[in-house]
Amino acid sequence: MHHVFAWGRSWLGSSEWGSAAVGPAMGCTHPTYLLLSPQMAQRLALQRLLSLTPRTLPLQGQRTLPAPLALSAPPTPHGRAFSTSSGCRSTFNVQDGSDFQDRVVNNPKPVVVDFHAQWCGPCKILGPRLEKMVAKQEGKVLMAKVDIDDHTDLAIEYEVSAVPTVLAMKNGDVVDKFVGIKDEDQLEAFLKKLIGA
Question: How far is Cα 141 from Cα 111, in angstroms, rounded to an integer?
Fold first, then answer.
């Protein structure tokens, strides 16, 4: 496995340093996963710390605003459209921590959690492929999509250090995991193991 370092806004789509493992066995130079840069990891940790710290910032005289609200980026729209066909109902975007708790941790069905990022090229390959394979399971397994830039707290809690990272969860516990791109046969085996686990 080779390591490629990229700077600036190359295929990483980020102005931060990062590294990617390239999959020579796949016969291509596409990275199979992206490691989070030290700067990105530090940013994730800082955001997590700020979300836990009960500070306030003064705004015009006596009024205050909680620090996480004042320092956070504008919320991204979560209106990513999905078809209402039966195959796509098994896939959903996680909205926040309580949504993750309700729809993933407390779900009686097995759930595959896809930790991804908009700037991650391998995520754009794996995501649709995984969604297709989950749809083939006809409701026996669900797929939760977690954008690590929107939900850094979940990425930190589940020790996501590279994207894409896919967790298999059953009864609230992580029972399996992989990082990087997998082909359809590997994904099917991963899902069958989860359903039978």
Answer: 6
